[in-house]
Write a structure and sequence with these properties.
Keywords: Signal. This is Spore-associated protein A. Residues 1-32 form the signal peptide. The chain has one helix at 2-21, and strands at 39-48, 51-61, 67-74, 83-92, 104-107, 111-115, 118-125, 132-140, 143-148. The chain is mainly β. The radius of gyration is 15 Å and the shape is globular. It has one domain. Strands 4, 5, 6, 8 and 9 form a five-stranded antiparallel beta sheet that branches. A four-stranded antiparallel beta sheet has the order 1-2-3-7, with no helix packed on it. It contains one helix and nine strands.
């Protein structure tokens, strides 16, 4: 029992250090109340050994000058299994150029925890005519799997 608890704490620590090193955890302003619904504008699955384990989805609706939200869903073998999972989304300063690195204008607080089905929703407003970017991650079998959308919806 103690060994298992220590192992889980070690995995959590490694995951948090990795996320901090890759810039996934950052201070942020308050975010909009959002839900994972609307028009899907981006979707990408991350796999392990050819089997999906997670999927990042970005949604858009026209409220509040454009609102984008993101969720990172457990897929395949990770579905229904507790794992450190997180997601955040940013409104970028750019107005064009999909698939590029985002110059953050507004960054949501990340939603991160031991989830069995998904992390999120997280959201940003004022995104009409602006690019957005989201990252989702899951720690599975002692490895961090990340989906980075780069700039989207420009």
């Amino acid at each position: 029992m103690i060994r298992r608890t220590l192992r889980r704490a070690g995995v959590l620590a490694v995951g948090l250090v990795t996320l901090a090193a890759t810039g996934l955890i950052a201070a942020a302003p308050a975010q909009a109340a959002t839900s994972c619904s609307g028009t899907v504008t981006y979707s990408k699955t991350v796999s392990r050994s050819g089997s999906p384990i997670g999927e990042l989805i970005i949604y858009y609706n026209s409220s509040n000058g454009g609102t984008n939200s993101a969720c990172f869903y457990h897929r395949g073998v990770s579905y229904g299994k507790s794992a450190l999972t997180g997601v955040h989304i940013a409104r970028c300063a750019q107005r064009s150029g999909e698939g590029r690195t985002c110059d953050f204008d507004v960054l949501s607080n990340p939603d991160e925890g031991s989830y069995s089905y998904y992390a999120g929703p997280v959201g940003v407003t004022g995104t009409a005519n602006k690019c957005v970017s989201a990252k989702g991650w899951i720690v599975w079998d002692f490895k961090v799997y990340i989906v980075d959308s780069l700039t989207q919806g420009c």
